[in-house]
Automatic annotation (TrEMBL):
The keyword Cell cycle belongs to this UniProt entry's keyword annotation: no
Organism whose genome encodes this protein: Cytobacillus horneckiae
UniProt main location, coarse: membrane
Protein name in the entry: MFS transporter
UniProt-listed SUPFAM superfamilies: MFS general substrate transporter
Keyword entries, A-Z: Membrane, Transmembrane, Transmembrane helix, Transport
GO molecular function: transmembrane transporter activity
Residue intervals passing through the bilayer: 42-62, 74-92, 128-153, 159-179, 212-231, 251-274, 286-304, 310-330, 342-363, 375-400
Localization per record: Cell membrane
GO cellular component: plasma membrane
Membrane topology note: Multi-pass membrane protein
Residue ranges of every copy of the Major facilitator superfamily (MFS) profile domain listed in the record: 5-405
Pfam families: MFS_1 (PF07690)
Length: 416
């Protein structure tokens, strides 16, 4: 059952990020069809994240009390309805409303999925399990890009969106039929316990006092600038600046996705192995992840100087694969800070990180519009994002100190 749950969560992440990224792959036909410019497209990209951080926290908090299986299934059904509704979009306002609603109902999925997987895997496999989920995000946003591009070209962008709605319905039935809420031992134990109490001021004080939670969230936040830029702007960057055709762009995006999965899963496996051998959270979770992010940021900065198509693809593979290391390891660190509030802790992480999703598309759109040349506009946006990751990866390594069990008990006593 453990691996069945992980596989279906992996497939759910594919659907989640395919829903999220298809907008970037369909950017050209949508902009031409609705007559949109770069600044307006920036608003479309940003709109997805306007409610995303809020609903992420609320949905994950309810999932801790009501059950992850019910929450994940409900979310998937809402995506199906929204993707079918794309057929009715005829103007920019309707496109923005669709993106706001899709972001609102997709916000809780990642944190709830991370917390759900965490219940099924022992500590020595948690990093690997989360890396599998993050790889689902990469498959959905990048590896399936050639298929999505072909669907957009052959069927039109609206039908391609609706096709993802069909996939959501199939996943819903598989998840309901093939999975359970929790492992048998945890389930039997949970039946004997009182219902989880509501979030309290004591919990808030505990979270606020954790430097590890703060700097993990900041590292995640900085990385999400790159996450959102890759989903919203990289397809256009590869076509307009690097000079690729739509077909070449699709395969380049897929190649970047596949190689990056290998890289950040490799970092997660190394982190798990280091933890298994040393039981040292600082070494295994902080230093390995932070160093990976730092190297990835430097790789992204390099495309500003050297824009050869082959090197751009290589650099994007390295930057995405290495900076994304925080995505699977970050939830493990946050859950360790307050295990009984796993869904809430991961939602704070992902929702705070997704605040970058509000800023990044808008900022890039306006910078590209206002810059004297497109190359300058894209270079400025890439430089700003990479520098942010560089700074916060260093701060993450310096100040994040995951707690041992004894330290957590002491902090809880001080907070109360």
């Amino acid at each position: 059952m453990r691996w069945t749950v992980l596989i279906l969560l992996f497939l759910g992440m594919i659907v989640n990020f395919a829903d999220k990224s298809i907008i970037g792959l369909a950017a050209k036909p949508i902009m031409e069809d609705l007559g949109l410019g770069p600044a307006q497209w920036g608003i479309v990209g940003s709109a997805y994240y306007w409610l995303y951080p809020i609903t992420g926290v609320i949905g994950a908090a309810y999932a801790d009390r009501l059950g992850a299986k019910k929450m994940l299934s409900f979310l998937m059904l809402t995506w199906a309805v929204l993707q079918f509704g794309v057929i009715a979009i005829t103007a920019l306002p309707l496109l923005i409303v669709y993106r706001i609603l899709l972001g609102a109902f997709e916000g809780p999925f990642s944190p709830v999925a991370y917390a759900h997987a965490d219940r099924w895997f022992p500590p020595k496999l948690k990093g690997f399990a989360n890396s599998v989920l993050v790889s689902g995000a990469t498959v959905g946003s990048m590896v399936v890009a050639p298929l999505l591009v072909a669907m957009i070209a052959g069927l039109g962008w609206k039908i391609a969106f609706a096709a993802l709605g069909v996939v959501s319905i199939v996943w819903f039935f598989l998840f309901m039929l093939l999975t359970k809420e929790s492992p048998v031992e945890a389930y039997e134990k949970a039946k004997k316990k009182k219902k989880l109490e509501k979030f309290s001021l004591k919990d808030l004080k505990y979270i606020a006092s954790s430097k590890t939670a703060l700097f993990t969230t900041l590292a995640y936040f900085s990385t999400y600038f790159i996450v959102v830029w890759i989903a919203t702007w990289m397809p256009l960057y590869l076509i307009d600046i690097v000079g690729m055709t739509a077909g070449q762009m699709g395969f380049a995006v897929a190649a970047i996705g596949i190689i990056s999965v290998v890289l950040y899963m490799g970092v997660s496996v190394i982190s798990d192995y280091a933890f298994k051998k040393t039981k040292n959270w600082k070494l295994s979770r902080i230093y390995i992840t932070g160093a990976s992010m730092l190297i990835g940021a430097i790789c992204m900065l390099s495309v500003i100087v050297y824009q050869n198509p082959i090197w751009v693809v290589i650099a994007m593979c390295l930057s995405k694969g290495l900076t994304y290391a925080i995505l699977p390891i970050g939830p493990t660190i946050m859950i360790n800070e307050m295990p009984e509030r796993g869904g809430l802790m991961t939602s704070i992480l992902t929702s705070s990180g997704n605040l970058a999703g509000i800023v990044a598309p808008l900022a890039t759109g306006f910078v590209v519009s206002l810059a004297s040349t497109q190359i300058l506009g894209y270079s400025l946006s890439i430089g700003a994002m990479a520098s942010l990751v560089l700074i916060f990866s260093i701060l993450f390594m310096l100040f994040a100190r995951p707690n041992s069990t004894e330290q957590k008990e002491k902090m809880e006593e001080e907070a109360s």
